[in-house]
Amino acid sequence: MMGKISESDYFSVFKDHGSYGIVGAIIVAILIPLLLSMIFMGKKKNKQRGVPVEDTGEAGLSMRNGRSAKLVDVPWEGATTMAALFEQSCKKNSRDQFLGTRKLIGRDFVTASDGRKFEKLHFGEYQWETYAQIFDRACDFASGLVKLGHDVGTRAAIFSETRAEWFIAFQGCFRQNITVVTIYSSLGEDALIHSLNETQVSTLICDSKQLKKLAAINSSLKTITNVIYFEDDETASDSNSSRSMDNWTVSSFTDVEKLGKKNPVHPRLPIKKDIAVIMYTSGSTGLPKGVMITHGNIVATAAAVQTVIPNLGSNDVYLAYLPLAHVFELAAESVMLCAGCAIGYGSALTLTDTSNKIKKGTKGDASVLKPTLMTAVPAILDRVRDGVLKKIEEKGGFGKKLFNIAYKRRLAAIEGSWLGAWGLETLLWDVLIFKKVRSVLGGKIRFMLCGGAPLSGDTQRFINICMGAPIGQGYGLTETFAGAAFTEWDDPSVGRVGPPLPCCHIKLVSWEEGGYTTSDKPMPRGEVVVGGFSVTAGYFNNDAKTNEVFKVDEKGMRWFYTGDIGRFHPDGCLEIIDRKKDIVKLQHGEYISLGKVEATLMSSNYVDNIMVHVDPFHNNCVALVVPSHQVLEKWAQEAGVKHKDFSELCDKVEAVSEVQQSLSKVAKAAKLDKFEIPAKIKLIPDPWTPESGLVTAALKLKREQLKAKFKDELQKLYE
């Protein structure tokens, strides 16, 4: 599960500031805003970010990026594949820092009051390798693969958590035009077996800790002959068991590099149309599908995103901690490679000074790296916001008042003038309030990108203000290699995903059955269809599904039908408002959007996660709710509700009633219809995690798995 940034990270922010703080607050809250409003009055302009374009194919309303009439497909001439982009970028930035990893000094185990043991890690500084060094390592690994006996006509798979060796192995495979199959490290056994067998993988590259999992399913893996593992201090015990398997050749990553260094092999470089990656998604339904991503798709997205983030280059440091097997992180690191940035690797469980796996007294990844760029998924940012707000409430008093003044003034400055938000007023509020909040992530963040799922407008604005940097929402799918729409850095709006990236067009196609049409007022609406260079080649070994959602028009442009419902704002920016699969019909014919209702109900302080469920034979919906442990326990203590443990509390009638009243309150405030408010709920004590198979790696709900696991509970809610 994604690591939660601890609320204690924010504690020092809310101390009383004494007379200096009072004077500063008065100056900022009264005098400076007045001056700024006079300076910037009337200067705010509406920028046209997306413009209409004539497209062929199915009728609809198409938009392109307002920056360029011609679609972008490469970052510079000659960089038509990932192999070429990697080689040219490494030569151009040869002496610059590229990949960094923290040195592990030691690990301890602490025992909690209930007897459970938790691992705590002690890390040192980042150790860096240059672009030139990483290029040499990738070439050595590629030669080692060939000398090891990998048939260059077959595929290799990477089954590992995010780390520098993942990226090196990935690039090494492309030196021999080997297609890489990417698989989530949290994928279950059945899905793992399916992915490896379907693509007939012959070489599997993995974490050493995955060796035991592979050993357990060895007899089910039909085509694997080589296993290469990344070393760590647990390698010896895990690898010895696998070495006894005579049907596999098991080698360490270092040994393969050494083999290649001694026996260099000439590269076999790919062309633009070659399949670079078959990416298996931990989709929300059924077995995962493998999306075939070409080299051209990857470089097109990288080239397009590079044009959107201002001044992107070798002075930037990117903190990599999301799963590289997810398209969002892989696309982000491809952009960093393209721009010559430094990439420092971390993990969600070691991100901050108080993260779950960080030993007390050891600094988290962000504190040491001090990144300028980061990505995040909405669930992480929602938790950051909740952590800050809870701490404000607990502190109360002057600290709470001062924070609220600062927040309101920054919000007014942003909404009145984007430039004013980052001027003198910002500097003063940073000294008083926001500097310590920002220090949680190293203090130097200048741009954050959120993707993987919709981010609420409230959270987007909150993080934007507290971190003092633009936060852009990206929209894309595995099927478009994350390249569809992207919020521009100078766009102060929230809740939108920006205009189309320069590598693609976005079309809205009317969905009459669902009531969304391009003639809708005040904004055209319809299914989001993406066309252009980022649109992938389809699903591996699944022509029927490919032909269902991928179309090629008469001019040869490839389109992907996303299933998402969007609307275009007057400035050409896209907003995602619904999803076709999430819209279901009740007994009396009313339509209900599960995603919309869930997003609304998530704003309740009691809710950590929620799944709304509809039975078409009933005229109301119900919900499974994972309550916030801390908030519900605090309520129980204040209400005098006795219980032995959290599971018992979740079964208490009083607790269910309290949470349901909270859901009704936020639902009515959001003006949901009566049939959209859950008639009954069930509180689920255990969190839903990727490891449990109930949410994806991007923390999206897996509805079918949730419905299967909680079948009995859902049935009782309708009785």
UniProtKB/TrEMBL annotation:
<dbReference type="GO" id="GO:0009698">
    <property type="term" value="P:phenylpropanoid metabolic process"/>
</dbReference>
<keyword id="KW-0812">Transmembrane</keyword>
<dbReference type="InterPro" id="IPR020845">
    <property type="entry name" value="AMP-binding_CS"/>
</dbReference>
<keyword id="KW-1133">Transmembrane helix</keyword>
<feature type="transmembrane region" description="Helical">
    <location>
        <begin position="20"/>
        <end position="40"/>
    </location>
</feature>
<dbReference type="Pfam" id="PF00501">
    <property type="entry name" value="AMP-binding"/>
</dbReference>
<dbReference type="InterPro" id="IPR000873">
    <property type="entry name" value="AMP-dep_synth/lig_dom"/>
</dbReference>
<protein>
    <recommendedName>
        <fullName>AMP-dependent synthetase/ligase domain-containing protein</fullName>
    </recommendedName>
</protein>
<comment type="pathway">
    <text>Phytoalexin biosynthesis; 3,4',5-trihydroxystilbene biosynthesis; 3,4',5-trihydroxystilbene from trans-4-coumarate: step 1/2.</text>
</comment>
<dbReference type="GO" id="GO:0016020">
    <property type="term" value="C:membrane"/>
</dbReference>
<keyword id="KW-0472">Membrane</keyword>
<keyword id="KW-0587">Phenylpropanoid metabolism</keyword>
<dbReference type="InterPro" id="IPR042099">
    <property type="entry name" value="ANL_N_sf"/>
</dbReference>
<dbReference type="GO" id="GO:0004467">
    <property type="term" value="F:long-chain fatty acid-CoA ligase activity"/>
</dbReference>
<dbReference type="GO" id="GO:0005783">
    <property type="term" value="C:endoplasmic reticulum"/>
</dbReference>
<feature type="domain" description="AMP-dependent synthetase/ligase">
    <location>
        <begin position="121"/>
        <end position="540"/>
    </location>
</feature>
